[in-house]
Amino acid sequence: MYEVRNRLLRLLPPDxxxxxxxxxxxxxxxxxxxxxxxxxxxxxxxxxESGLVSVGAKVGPQQFVEVWLIGSEGLAGIHLALxxxxxxxxxxxxxxxxxxxxxxxxxxxxxxxxxPTFRSVVHAYIASVLIQTAQSGACNTAHQLxxxxxxxxxxxxxxxxxxxxx
Length: 166
Fold this sequence. Notes:
six-stranded antiparallel β-sheet, single chain
């Protein structure tokens, strides 16, 4: 077994980690790759190992605004831990190339149902995303561009675990 870099998966006990990794496949993430399209049925969830994924909320017919970032601390497709609805309300695009452990929606939901620590870790991540997006919304209305950029750079650095944006 290779070294897992995703910080959510690293929190799992060995038996649950092994189970999740047996259900997953490691896939490359290429820059500008669309992982999930707004309103289009999702096939997979992605536990980001490296790279950076931007989550965009639809604000116009072809317009999206970034609402949060996902790096090795998280996963793309969190709402599937709470609902069976596979049509996302957000678009997810790779901003910095990397890799991820990918699970089909069915396998992810099976693991959520069967593995208690996995479920707890994913739910805790969902709570942190809710806090992050609420803070981001507040900062976007209260702070000037320079401060918002500084916040984004810090979030990106934390998500990537690196000072390099490629």
